[in-house]
């Protein structure tokens, strides 16, 4: 079929009306207004509108509008060969959808596109003009995105975080600033104090808020546990914030100090060993100081990493209970573990106690493999395990209470001096 014959075919129009709720399209006519205007134009020009397709969707991204994609498919199948629409940007604001339109015109499947002021047919000049107008819409769309990002960055540099303020603060539309929420801010402060000063956990805070206070979100709902952890980890409350990948110092009024915030992060990074974070150290009361004979205690220290996480370290040192000013150095737990492992072969172990502990592990293994996996006793048979190898494994991989239990089977008296372990039988 020649192009002349195709052009002689009557044009069957589909009226396409689209409206997006996004900021950059709020000035466009409503869908009903578009349909009213274009139906009046169709009646005036004597064109046949076969069907009307409505869509409320952004045209920023290619292939994301179901009704529009259906329109293109029905043009390919011959149901329509013309489009009636308010303006070119109702059809496309991206290169992908524009390319689909031009391709249909090149194939002769789409003969005409009519808008309220122009007609585009399958001719080089008119297709070029169509591409110019749709590309202009894309350029405006891209520029608005760049301008929005630039505006957000400028606002951040001025000290005001874009978006909805965290709980405890309110967005003030009149001057585009952030102010303290007088109803929620005092309870937010109390949350941080309870964690830092009273050892409350996140769940303790959750229970306290929901049983002893009337604290709710701005929508009137009870705060969930995950939101409590987000609040306690948010630097916004001491005056800083992040937006994107950058950190900024805010102009809003801080609710807490940086010191209080850091203390909360330390408390929250500690492993829970009971209510309010009771500490459990593996090797206390198992050694004495080689310099003064006092006991050995432990304490934990935390270091903030570049990514914001907190790294926990445990150090052992003399209690100096004899008040003689013992100045023995601190010893890292990781170094002590390797020394314990090295000493295991030289130490005298309580064979009975070790065997009982090992047998518990073996029994638990058999219950799982036979009771859960359904394996036979022959299939789960274990080779003979060396007790000292088992002790080394627990020292490296076990929990603090497991390490302590293993070391309680050591009959020797252990001495820590100048960061080095030795037993009383050593020369």
Automatic annotation (TrEMBL):
Coiled coil: none annotated. One of its GO terms (molecular function) is DNA strand exchange activity. CDD domains: Ser_Recombinase. Pfam families: Recombinase (PF07508), Resolvase (PF00239), Zn_ribbon_recom (PF13408). PROSITE patterns: RECOMBINASE_DNA_BIND (PS51737), RECOMBINASES_3 (PS51736). Residues 166-274 form the Recombinase domain. It comes from the Bacteria. SMART domains: Resolvase (SM00857). This is Recombinase. Residues 12-159 form the Resolvase/invertase-type recombinase catalytic domain.
């Amino acid at each position: 079929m020649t192009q002349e014959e195709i052009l002689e075919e009557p044009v069957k129009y589909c009226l396409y009306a689209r409206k997006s709720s996004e900021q950059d399209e709020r000035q466009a006519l409503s869908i009903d207004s578009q349909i009213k205007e274009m139906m009046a134009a169709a009646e005036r020009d004597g064109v046949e509108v076969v069907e009307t397709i409505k869509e409320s969707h952004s045209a920023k991204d290619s292939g994301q509008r179901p009704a529009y994609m259906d329109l293109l498919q029905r043009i390919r199948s011959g149901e329509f060969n013309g489009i009636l629409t308010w303006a070119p940007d109702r059809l496309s604001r991206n290169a992908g959808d524009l390319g689909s339109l031009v391709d249909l015109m090149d194939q002769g499947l789409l003969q005409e596109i009519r808008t309220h002021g122009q007609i585009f047919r399958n001719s080089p000049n008119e297709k070029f003009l169509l591409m110019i107008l749709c590309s202009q819409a894309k350029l405006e769309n891209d520029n608005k995105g760049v301008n929005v990002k630039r505006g957000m960055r400028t606002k951040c540099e001025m000290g005001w975080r874009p978006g909805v303020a965290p709980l405890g603060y309110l967005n003030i539309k009149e001057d585009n600033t952030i102010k303290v929420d007088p109803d929620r801010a005092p309870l937010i402060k109390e949350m941080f104090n309870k964690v830092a000063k009273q050892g409350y956990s996140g769940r303790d805070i959750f229970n306290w808020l929901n049983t002893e206070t009337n604290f709710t979100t701005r929508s009137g709902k009870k705060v969930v546990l995950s939101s409590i952890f987000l609040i306690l980890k948010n630097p916004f409350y001491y005056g800083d914030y992040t937006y994107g990948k950058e950190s900024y110092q805010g102009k809003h009024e801080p609710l807490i100090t940086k010191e209080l915030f850091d203390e909360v992060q330390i408390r929250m990074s500690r492993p829970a060993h009971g209510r309010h974070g009771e500490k459990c150290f593996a090797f206390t009361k198992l050694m004495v100081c080689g310099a003064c004979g006092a006991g050995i205690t432990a304490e934990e220290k935390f270091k903030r990493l570049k990514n914001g996480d907190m790294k926990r370290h445990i150090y052992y040192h003399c209690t100096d209970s004899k008040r003689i000013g013992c100045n023995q150095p601190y010893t890292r737990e990781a170094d002590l573990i390797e020394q314990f492992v090295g000493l295991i072969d030289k130490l005298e172990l309580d064979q009975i106690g070790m065997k009982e502990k090992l047998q518990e592990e073996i029994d638990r293994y058999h219950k799982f493999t036979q009771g859960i996996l359904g394996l036979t006793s022959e299939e789960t048979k274990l080779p003979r395990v060396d007790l000292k190898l088992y002790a080394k494994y627990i020292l490296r991989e076990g929990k603090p209470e497991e390490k302590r239990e293993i070391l309680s089977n050591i009959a020797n008296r252990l001495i820590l001096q100048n960061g080095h372990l030795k037993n009383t039988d050593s020369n």
